[in-house]
Amino acid sequence: MDEREIQKIERRVGQFEEHLAMENYSPLTVRGYVKDLRFFLRYLQTLDVRDLTAVTGDSLYKYQLHVYQEKHKDKPLSLMTQRGRLVAVRSFFHYLLKRGRILTDPASGLELPRVKKRLPRGVMTVREVNKILAQPDVDTPLGLRDKALLEVLYTTGIRNGELRNLTLHDVDLESRELRINDGKGQKDRVVPLGEIAAHYVAQYLDRARPALVGKRPDAAARLFISRRGRPLDPLVVNDRIIRKYVHQAGITKHVTAHGFRHTCATHMLKGRANIRHIQALLGHKSLDTTQMYTHVEVGDLKREHRRTHPREQDRGE
Question: Does residue 238 lie within any of the structural domains?
Answer without folding.
Answer: yes
